[in-house]
Amino acid sequence: MHYIIVITRTDHSSVATGTFSCGALSKDPLLVLRGEVQFFTPDLGVSDAKQLVYKLTLLSTDGQTYLFNGYKTIDNSIGFSPSKTWKATTTLSVTITKPDENQRVVGRGKLYISWRNFESELQSFGAGGLAPKASFLKYFARNVADFFIGPFGKLVSAAEPGDDFLVPPGKDNTAGTRIGYLKKPKPIKTVVLKARDGVETTIRVWEPFYKQEKVKIPILMVPGASVDYQMYAMPTNTINAVDYFTALGHTVYVTTPRYGISSTAKASSTPANASLDILAAMEFLRKEEDGRKFYAIVHCVGSVATSVGLLNGTIPAGWMAGMTVSQVFFRAKFGKVNSVKGGTTALPKIYKAIAGPWYPIVTPRHSVFHWILDQILRFYPVGPKGEVCNSAVCHRASFLYGLLWQHDNLNQATHSQLENFITGLHMNFLTNLVLIGEKTRVLDAEGKDTLVNDDNLGRLEGLPIFLFSGGNNVVYDPVTTSMCYDDLRKRFPGQEELYRRTVFEDYGHLDNWMGKDADKDVFPAVREHLEWCVEREAGHML
């Protein structure tokens, strides 16, 4: 390829002209009619990466037109590696298509730029001597350095209007919304519920996407700690869990218990206390649905709290036709790092003594302690280089729970605005979670080991349960759901068909629900179990 790049705009998008040689397409060089090169555009499909994008229209000497699309990806995998940095910035993935209605692919491959070609390419940048070249090289080096220096890069606490990954208004996005937010159906109602101990929480209801003759089973979704209904109704994903199941014809109820993003989160409580919130949500749903059975989807602390209610008899298993349990249930085993950090209650006690009972996910302004903590958390264990990021919110959440996702599974709009989707936690709540991890099973509100026994497990009889874990979950080891699965099958011999378990490889903890491709990788498995439960229930009624 021989071309001249002329930088014409301040955003460093540029015009490219010249020729392109490919013997498989034409014996003569192809002329670049219209060409644009976009430098360091955010890859909206990945949480923290940028691309160099090439879009060229090619014309052959025999009058054939082709579209040349190429890209280079720069991400945190290049950290402190000159060889990986050179490869990433000089390797171009290319697809060549015909500009017809089918966009037929006629060529695909990779182009590699040698040092000599790279030097020649620099000579083509603009005109006016050394100044334009120096300006571009400075811009180029600064953007690459952000990924090369990894944890030493600038920390970002929150997305701001005007950030360069702003999704433009269109049919899937409305002007004036937050960055990257898509236009989504609103709940038909939001209701304040009061638990038996007087704590107020909320529940939101979404109606089916389309009307149908046969009313399908309603679904109750219970999120985990420090999040809320948005975990299932992600406004930054094309298809979130609420979208997916309302499109299938289900009415979806999503509750936000006291441990979520709510006014009650800063009060002292435990997962066992929160079981009363889930009971209140179930009672509301049953009233709305005239006592019909429903299907429950519960995640993390929502699973733990639900298991407490089932085991102590507060929540009748007979109300449900079945349930999906995500990551943990009445058994709990921490991941490797969490098993060290959570092997003692000393850490939350020390934090509480220094900074108070509330751990904020967004760094408080003018707090020297939290500023120092942010600098330390740059180096908190996160796994491979690809899991390194510059989000202070992501770091703080990881310190609290462990890395909550595989970064490749989050799109940029989600990762850049984590402050809207996750909040902090009370240290008393965290202490109870640590004790649960030490005992490897759920505890009551006083922290006593009184719940997991044969008599209490007997209350789950006849309830179909689908358990799953993310294969790369470092919050709770995937063996956690295996322990629950084994306990259930042992407790109810002859009823093994009621229990299913799977592991979604390449997923972590929260990305099973918040991930950009969860609708393809995770939700169908939940749907399959739900429909099996409905068929089973219908068979019992005959």
Structure overview:
Its cofactor is FAD. This is Alpha/beta-hydrolase. It comes from Collybiopsis confluens. One of its GO terms (molecular function) is oxidoreductase activity. The structure is a single chain. The strands form three sheets. Strands 8-9-11-10-12-13-16-17 form an eight-stranded mixed β-sheet, with helices on both faces. The protein has a seven-stranded antiparallel β-sheet with strand order 1-2-3-4-5-6-7. Strands 14-15 form a two-stranded antiparallel sheet. 40% of the residues are buried. α5 crosses α6 and α8 (346-355) runs antiparallel to α12. The chain is globular. It is built from 17 helices and 17 strands. α14 (479-491) links the parallel β16 and β17. Residues 2-11 and 161-177 have low confidence and may be disordered. The protein folds into two domains: 2-148; 189-541, 3-Layer(aba) Sandwich (Rossmann fold). It is an alpha/beta fold. Helices cover 32% and strands 21% of the residues.
